[in-house]
């Protein structure tokens, strides 16, 4: 089976849990707690005011406390994964894990609570009085049938969403995977025969959701430790099993599975045998979801059949059907509309949104998180993977919308597009910077040439560009090669532009050659040199398209170094008159965005060049929605210590004084002064910036390059660029290792540049 990761060892797992601060979780404050004043505001006496406000109006607890973003993960440890009743304490690693997943995937603050009782009433009473503390309750790993009673009673008693993850989280993800697997194998949901092994929390909830999706009651057979749950059976039954009992002669799992289309395991390790797999219908669908070890491994299935679609609950096999894809996002959506409950419509909306997302092209950042395995809708990719960054904007929005449609949202969302943007921003700090640009571009789409059109990354970026509504992408490359790649990627709808193809033709080549010859004839180049470049060099061809107005912008750089690509482009396009060409890196973190230049071109810019770079960087910052505050950086602050190289930067600031610009700038100053506004005001009260600098003009290329990379590596966040600034036509050159996402961003930036001219 493709792409299976190296298995982890028990030692590795123990080391992870014990290393550093033991466990996986810590709590950090969100407000400054550095001075006496901070303490007065956040604690006594300041804290009294919000207390009194909440007393007067309980709904303001969502405004003055963290309640609205905290979900308690609560268990008594009676069904820890598929390991059975390990008790409350031993369930803590799983509950801490769920809390971490809440934070990592949906920016929900999860807190684990292990309740040491097996008594249903005691458990309910322990939880019901905790309601004021949390925005929601995620019940976890509580055995059936207790979990049904507990969830039902708590839902009645509490005014916040109560959701048993093993039931509904699992059912939602299994339903999403099942939608797609049925579609892939051409099955009609009404005709599908399905066996669920297990008749506990997860199994009963799956049976219920599958039936509400359209699988007839009689087509689902449940099995448990006593065999088939048949109508009339009395041993080991309860009311929840009885509701799903069917009339059948089958008595064992083997009987039930023979000839069936789908097996869903929510029971225990090894419950399914290869012989049973053999007995299933053609193209069987096998979800072996017991954790940590499935009912049957994908390898065991492969040994007896090669036509099966197999999923497990584990991260180290393809098709991970696991509730991690659900609970973080479902609660995110529910919390954001202050839903009073999580109802069936919200669950079905989540399942449908997940299924639909799996059918879309996968960004290659996601592939990279999975050892470079190429994830593409098909038998080994029926459901999105947990590290897909699109989940955060897709699933909560679908859940929130369903909550609003069904009247359980106490704080409906007014602007859904804005909500999606805010969701993206929770995990991707660049979303904000790019949103403004993306919106402008969508209302005025542009034609962008991807010079390296035969590259898979270019093809996928072109598709992403088009489907983002940014305009028409042009892929330069041999027609048959591009078409074959499009087909192998399961994509279509873009006609490649084949330079050599007679259909495309002589007139353009002639026109571009004439254009280039006019430019270069007095720079020592012959007509035939120009013809060869246009015919054979895709960067030159693409640049000619842009230069002559046949396209609005171009991107390149995947296959050649910056210097080589840039040399090609310079043959065709000059710097903008009175402009300097340089590289601008944009680093966006959750707290701030900074623009750093020049990160690519000038090794030691002169004071004049530094001033030019500052002016153009500030303009770019403004275009991206940031009011520029420019700092000219050095190792010294306003003349101390005074050395030659610092004087060089001071000269740039003096030049700026003469240029009468319409933005704030100052310097020379050190990086800490520039970024720490309190420090700047305390030590240099005369400094002219009205806040921390957000445009950093570096004294030299090595400082710029090193600084940008250090900030990125230590500070986290996302790096856009370096963007090529100052060419007479919109061009972007990405770095050779650029991802599809980076190339798409470069295309968007280039296209936006053409709007701004
Ligand atoms: N992939 C995922 O996202 C998830 C996977 N799971 C997995 O599903 C399994 C069940 O969890 P959960 O529903 O919470 O637990 P429960 O304790 O509520 O239910 C367990 C059920 O499995 C049945 N069972 C146990 N062993 C066997 C066996 N050998 N053959 C047939 N039936 C068996 C039990 O039968 P009986 O009623 O006779 O005791 C019971 O009905 C676990 O392995 C868990 O890891 C759960 C949630 C999410
Ligand atoms: C994934 C999960 O919640 C379980 O196996 O119990
Ligand atoms: Mg669980």
TrEMBL record:
Keywords tagged on the record: Metal-binding, Multifunctional enzyme, NADP, Oxidoreductase
SUPFAM superfamilies named among the record's database cross-references: Aminoacid dehydrogenase-like, N-terminal domain, Isocitrate/Isopropylmalate dehydrogenase-like, NAD(P)-binding Rossmann-fold domains
Gene Ontology MF terms: acyltransferase activity; malate dehydrogenase (decarboxylating) (NADP+) activity; metal ion binding; NAD binding
Keyword Metal-binding: yes
Domain Malic enzyme N-terminal: 22-155
Entries under Gene3D superfamilies matching the protein: 3.40.50.10950, Isocitrate/Isopropylmalate dehydrogenase-like, Malic enzyme, N-terminal domain, NAD(P)-binding Rossmann-like Domain
UniProt xrefs under InterPro entries: Aminoacid_DH-like_N_sf (IPR046346), Malate_Decarboxylase (IPR051674), Malic_enzyme_CS (IPR015884), Malic_N_dom (IPR012301), Malic_N_dom_sf (IPR037062), Malic_NAD-bd (IPR012302), Malic_NAD-bd_bact_type (IPR045213), ME_PTA (IPR012188)
Membrane spanning residue stretches: none
Protein name listed in UniProt: NADP-dependent malic enzyme
Lineage: Bacteria, Pseudomonadati, Pseudomonadota, Alphaproteobacteria, Rhodospirillales
């Amino acid at each position: 089976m493709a792409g299976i990761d190296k298995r982890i060892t028990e030692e590795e797992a123990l080391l992870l849990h014990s290393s550093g601060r033991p466990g996986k979780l810590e709590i950090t404050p969100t407000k400054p707690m550095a001075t006496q004043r901070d303490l007065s505001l956040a604690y006594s006496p300041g804290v009294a005011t919000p207390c009194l406000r909440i007393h007067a109006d309980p709904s303001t607890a969502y405004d003055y406390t963290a309640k609205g973003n905290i979900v308690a993960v609560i268990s008594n440890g009676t069904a820890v994964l598929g390991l059975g009743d390990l008790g409350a304490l031993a369930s803590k690693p799983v509950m801490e894990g769920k809390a971490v997943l809440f934070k990592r995937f949906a920016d929900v603050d999860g807190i684990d609570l292990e309740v040491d009782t097996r008594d249903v009433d005691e458990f309910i009473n322990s939880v019901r009085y905790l309601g004021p503390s949390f925005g929601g309750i995620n019940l976890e790993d509580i055995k059936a049938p207790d979990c049904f009673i507990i969830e039902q009673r708590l839902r009645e008693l509490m005014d916040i969403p109560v959701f048993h993850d093993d039931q509904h989280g699992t059912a939602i993800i299994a339903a999403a995977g099942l939608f797609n697997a049925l579609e892939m194998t051409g099955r009609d949901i009404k005709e599908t025969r399905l066996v669920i092994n297990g008749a506990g929390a997860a199994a009963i909830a799956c049976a219920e959701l599958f039936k509400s999706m359209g699988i007839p009651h009689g087509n689902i057979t449940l099995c448990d430790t006593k065999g088939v749950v048949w109508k009339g059976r009395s041993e080991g039954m309860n009311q929840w099993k009885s509701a799903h009992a069917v009339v059948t002669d089958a008595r064992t799992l083997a009987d039930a599975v023979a000839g069936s289309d789908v097996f869903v395991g929510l029971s225990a390790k090894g419950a399914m045998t290869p012989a049973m797999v053999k007995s299933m219908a053609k193209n069987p669908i096998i979800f072996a979801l017991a954790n940590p070890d499935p009912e049957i491994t994908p390898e065991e299935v492969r040994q007896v059949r090669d036509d099966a679609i197999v999923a497990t609950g584990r991260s180290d096999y393809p098709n991970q059907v696991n509730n991690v894809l659900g609970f973080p996002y479902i609660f995110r959506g529910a919390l954001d509309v202050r839903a009073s409950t999580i109802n069936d419509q919200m669950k079905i909306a989540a399942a449908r949104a997940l299924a639909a997302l799996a059918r879309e092209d996968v960004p290659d950042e996601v592939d990279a998180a999975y050892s470079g395995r190429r994830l593409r809708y098909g038998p080994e990719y029926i459901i999105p993977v947990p590290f897909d960054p699109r989940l955060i904007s897709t699933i909560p929005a679908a859940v929130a919308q369903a909550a609003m449609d069904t009247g359980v949202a106490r704080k409906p969302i007014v602007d859904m597009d804005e909500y999606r943007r805010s969701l993206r921003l929770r995990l991707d700090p660049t979303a904000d910077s790019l949103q403004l640009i993306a919106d402008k571009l969508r209302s005025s789409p542009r034609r962008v040439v991807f010079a390296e059109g035969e590259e898979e990354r270019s093809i996928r970026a072109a598709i992403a560009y088009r489907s983002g509504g940014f305009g028409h992408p042009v892929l330069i490359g041999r027609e048959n090669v591009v078409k074959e790649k499009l087909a192998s990627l399961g994509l279509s709808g873009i006609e490649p532009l084949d330079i050599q193809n007679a259909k495309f033709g002589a007139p353009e080549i002639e026109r571009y050659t004439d254009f280039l010859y006019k430019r270069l004839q007095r720079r020592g180049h012959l007509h035939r040199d120009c013809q060869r470049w246009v015919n054979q060099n895709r960067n030159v061809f693409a640049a000619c398209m842009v230069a002559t107005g046949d396209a609005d912008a171009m991107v390149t750089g995947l296959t050649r170094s910056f210097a080589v690509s840039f040399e090609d482009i310079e043959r065709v396009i000059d710097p903008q008159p009175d402009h300097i060409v340089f590289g601008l890196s944009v680093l966006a973190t959750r707290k701030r965005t900074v623009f750093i230049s020049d990160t690519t071109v000038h090794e030691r810019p002169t004071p004049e060049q530094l001033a030019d770079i500052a002016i153009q960087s500030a303009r770019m910052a403004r275009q991206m929605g940031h009011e520029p505050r420019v700092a000219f950086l050095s190792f010294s602050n306003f003349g101390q210590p005074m050395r030659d190289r610092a004087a060089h930067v001071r000269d740039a600031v003096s030049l700026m004084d003469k240029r009468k610009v319409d933005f704030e700038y100052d310097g020379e100053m050190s990086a800490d002064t520039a970024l720490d506004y309190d420090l700047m005001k305390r030590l240099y009260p005369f400094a002219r910036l009205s806040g921390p600098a957000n445009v950093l003009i570096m004294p030299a290329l090595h400082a710029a390059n090193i600084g940008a990379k250090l900030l990125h590596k230590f500070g986290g966040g996302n790096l856009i660029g370096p963007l090529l600034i100052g060419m007479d036509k919109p061009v972007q050159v990405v770095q050779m290792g650029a991802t599809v996402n980076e190339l798409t961003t470069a295309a968007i930036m280039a296209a936006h540049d053409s709007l701004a001219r």
